[in-house]
Amino acid sequence: MSDFYNYDSEDTQETTEAAAPDTTGAEYAGKAETHVRRGGRRRTVQRRQAETVLDTYDLIGAADDTERQALAAVLGVQDIEVRALTVALASAARPKAGQALQDLLDVAAADDAPMAALALAVGREGQARLRRAWQLAAALGALEGAPDANVVEAARRLAEAATGLQALLEAVAGLVA
Known about the structure:
The protein is an all-alpha fold.
């Protein structure tokens, strides 16, 4: 005990010693001593990490409102303020709609965009990928409603939207990278 808790009175000393649990008893035999850490471990930010976050802040700050709204849609956040987007981007393991962004970029860059969009719908998760790409294009204002039940028609409309959004999508991909 520290000197602060030591008193001159012997009665107090005996009370303090009697109240302390006996950690040498049989009930503790064979059990490992555990320590509860409060507040967690303090992590140090490396210089390179700090520079990366600040560079991201500068990039997002240089983006216009349309690009920040698109970035917010890709990250799945509502706030388009530079600080909030930087925090969301720096703290996220990956963007919420990152695969949809890449799918739209692939469709927009393809020589035959409608065929590339139709290829999204193929396979086990194809319909879901087409739907997520559609939802991102709708969030960016290029499409409305849900995809058409006719996959060919939905792919054609998605291809038109992706082609029209190509410059914006490339700008957002540059911010996410």
